[in-house]
Amino acid sequence: MGRRAGASTRQMAASRRRTATWFLLLGLLVAVGILAISLDTRLVAAIGLPGFLALLLLTRLIGNVAGEGIDRQLKRARQAERGARAEEDVSRVLERLAAQQPMLIFHDVATGHGNIDHVVLTPHGVFVLETKSHHGRVEVAGERLLLNGKPPEKDFIAQALGNAYWLKNHLRKLIGVEVWVNALIVFTHAFVPRPYRIKGVRVVNVRFLPDIIAQGGGQNAAAAWEKREVLRASFEGDEDYISGTA
Question: Which residues form the signal peptide (predicted)?
Answer without folding.
Answer: none
